[in-house]
Amino acid sequence: MDFKLKTNPIPNPNDYGKKAQIVDLGNGSSVVYVPKFLAYDVSWEFFSYLDNHIPWTRPTIHVFGRSCMQPRDTCYVASAGLPDLIYSGYQPRAYSWDEFPPLKDILDAVHKILPGSMFNSLLLNRYKGGSDYIGWHSDDEKLYGSTPEIASVSLGEIRSGEKPPLKRFKKSRQDDQHRFALKHGSLLVMKGNIQRDWLHSVPKRAKAETTRINLTFRRVMQD
Ligand SMILES: O=C(O)CCC(=O)C(=O)O
Fold first, then answer.
1. pLDDT in tens, 86-108
2. What average pLDDT does the segment 161-185 reach?
3. Residue 107 belongs to a domain
4. 129-133 long-range contacts, Cβ below 8 Å, gap at least 24?
C-alpha cells in the first residue's frame, strides 16, 4: 500500500491569483491576506447596499456573567436546515441568502478564490465608529468543526490620517501577536488550528468616525 502526505495546509500565494500575503503561525495555523480581493468601486457598491438593506441589530449578549449590548451591529445569514448558531447567550435569527442577492455574488467570489470551500453561513458585523469593536475571542463553536476555514471580507473607508482597521491575533504572550490592516475590499482567511490556538480581535480606535462592514463566511457542519 502506498501512502502520501495530505496537501500541505500552508497554501501557495500563486494559488490566489492576486497578491496574497501568507503568514504561517506554526502548528498548522495560518492566515492568508488578499488586500485587493474585490475591486475598489465594486466594494463601495457592496458597502452601500449592505449598509442600507441589511436588518442590522445590536443585541444584548452575556459575557463573563454580565449582560451588555454587543458593541457593533450584526446580522446572520445561513442556508436552510442548519443547526442554530448561539454565541454569548444570543441566538440570532437566520436570514436567507435569497433576501440579499449581492451577498451571493460575494459568496461566489470567495468560493472562486478558495476552491473546495463550501461556506453555508455568514455573520455580518457593522462597526459604526471607533468605539465599536470585538474583543479577544476565537470562533471555536462546535458548529464549525475542529479546523474551520473562515473567510473574512472587509468593506469601508480607511480613515484618513489614521491606520486602517486592524485584526489582531494573539496567542498568550504580548510579543506573540500579529497585526493585519484590513483594507476596503480585502479578504483574510483563517486556516487550520487557528481557532484552537489563537485569539483575534478588532480593537477600538479613538479617532475612527466612519463605518466599517465585515463579513465572515463559515461552514456549519451538518450531522
Ligand atoms: O470584523 C472583523 O474583522 C472580525 C469579526 C470577527 O472576529 C467575528 O465575527 O468573529
1. 999 999 999 999 999 999 999 99
2. 67
3. yes
4. 129/208, 129/209, 129/210, 129/211, 130/204, 130/205, 130/206, 130/207, 130/208, 130/209, 131/71, 131/204, 132/71, 132/72, 132/73, 132/204, 133/71, 133/72, 133/201, 133/202, 133/203, 133/204
Residue 2 placed within a domain: no
Q: Which atom of ligand 1 is nearest to the CA of 201?
A: 7
216 in ligand 1 pocket by Cβ < 6 Å? Answer: yes
Give domain status of residue 195, yes or no: yes
Total domains, the chain: 1
Supply the range of the domain harboring residue 166.
25-218
C-alpha cell at 9: 495546509
Choose the residue to mutate in 200, 205, 215, 217 for probing ligand 1, maximizing ligand atoms within 8 Å of C-beta. Answer: 200
pLDDT at 5 over 60: no
pLDDT digit string (tens) for 112-156? 999 999 999 999 999 998 889 998 889 999 999 999 999 999 999
pLDDT of 16-69, one tens digit each? 766 899 999 899 999 999 999 999 999 999 999 999 999 999 999 998 899 999
Per the listing, cell 455573520 goes with 123
Chain-wide mean pLDDT for the chain?
A: 87
User: Is the backbone of residue 47 left (phi > 0), alpha (psi -120 to 50) or beta?
Assistant: alpha
178 assigned binding-site residue: no
CATH no. for residue 160? 2.60.120.590
Establish if 14 belongs to a structural domain.
Answer: no
